[in-house]
Amino acid sequence: MRILGIETSCDETGVAIYDTDQGLLSHALFSQVDMHAHFGGVVPELASRDHIRRIVPLIKEVSDEANIHFNAIDGIAYTEGPGLVGALLVGISVAHGLSWSLQIPAVGIHHMEGHLLACMLEEEKPKFPFIALLVSGGHTQLVKVEAVGRYTIMGESLDDAVGEAFDKTAKLLGLGYPGGPVIEKIAREGHAGIYNFPRPMINRPGLDFSFSGLKTFAKNTWEESRQDQQTKADIARAFSEAVFDTLFIKCQRAIQQTGLRHLVVAGGVSANRQLRARFRDLEADVFYPRLEFCTDNGAMIAYAGAIRLVAGEQKGLSFGARPRWSLDELQPPAHLPENS
Ligand code: KG4
Ligand code: ZN
């Protein structure tokens, strides 16, 4: 079965074609980062308008690259939520327009399920059941994954998501948007041990997180400092180390609690090489998507859609976006949602 995957939940238009026999045939992405950087963050209305401009040329690009005519597509997967409603609706409308005109099934995918399954596109795959640490711009969650669609949230951030904490800290240091990659870069120039950031909530039992205090700590540290380039680098390093130490401690706790030895780390922040270096000491086998599939992309949606479409799941003629949608509301593919 050949699946066209469409991702438009935020500021990246991602499209891909996945073949259940041959694997990923092609993928393409347009990032709106340069446009939003000007405003210091994502402007939802501009995001929606840009998805409209990009999506059809990108679909043509992936079909040309895979050397496939529209008629050879057997199903369509799109991000149904969570995300920005206007942005989601662009992908959803295009997906259902194509589905209707080509008379092929379409299925709506949870964005975080896409992230969680992205590592299945790699040679080295985790085995169910495993633990997933999801670290993106909107989510920080530790999830027990028993099977596709069988997710239990074991812990999550009570305030800012990790990516959000990176973005806000970068902004207050005057480093631009998005914050994660630029903090990673500048942290390499930082000296160890200059600042000592707290490791939030590690002394409390459980697997929840809190990152908004780290951002405030960075703000206060910056305001009381010499405010030069080296200080920015030292803060970036101390901030990153505190975040990754905290994530490390909670992952280790989840591994001990569950006895599971496979851990998937996914979502934008999993692209961070300092995180990956820190996680080498975990008492588990750690699996990551390739760097380009850590951040938003169409391939992860095509893959998750393939699993659900092969199992016979599909959306009916009535559809919509789910801007807020918890991962633990999902069902395994064989259990069709009531309104489908
Ligand atoms: O998964 P993603 O592309 O979109 C969401 O689903 O939110 O994640 C984007 C987030 C942003 O907050 C960005 O700053 C962060 O991931 N990010 C990183 C890195 N690359 C992206 N954070 C830390 N280090 C990175 N290298
Ligand atoms: Zn994402």
Task: Describe this protein's structure.
The chain has 340 residues and is of the alpha/beta class. It has two domains: 2-117 and 295-329, Nucleotidyltransferase, domain 5, CATH 3.30.420.40; 125-288, 2-Layer Sandwich (Nucleotidyltransferase, domain 5), CATH 3.30.420.40. Helix content is 39%, strand content 19%. The chain contains ten helices and ten strands. The protein has helices at 33-37, 44-65, 85-102, 111-117, 162-172, 179-187, 212-223, 229-258, 273-278, 299-310, and strands at residues 2-7, 12-19, 23-31, 75-81, 106-110, 130-135, 140-147, 150-156, 262-266, 285-287. A five-stranded mixed sheet has the order 3-2-1-4-5, sandwiched between helices. Helix 5 (162-172) runs parallel beside helix 7 (212-223) and helix 6 crosses helix 8 (229-258). The longest helix is centred in the last third of the chain and has 30 residues, at 229-258. The two termini are 21 Å apart.
CATH topology of the largest domain: Nucleotidyltransferase, domain 5
What can be said about the biggest beta sheet?
Answer: 5 strands, mixed
What Rg is obtained from the alpha carbons, in whole angstroms? 20 Å
Report the helical percentage: 25-40%
Give a quick precis of the structure:
With 340 residues, the chain is α/β, with parallel strands linked by helices. It has helices at 33-37, 44-65, 85-102, 111-117, 162-172, 179-187, 212-223, 229-258, 273-278, 299-310, and strands spanning 2-7, 12-19, 23-31, 75-81, 106-110, 130-135, 140-147, 150-156, 262-266, 285-287.
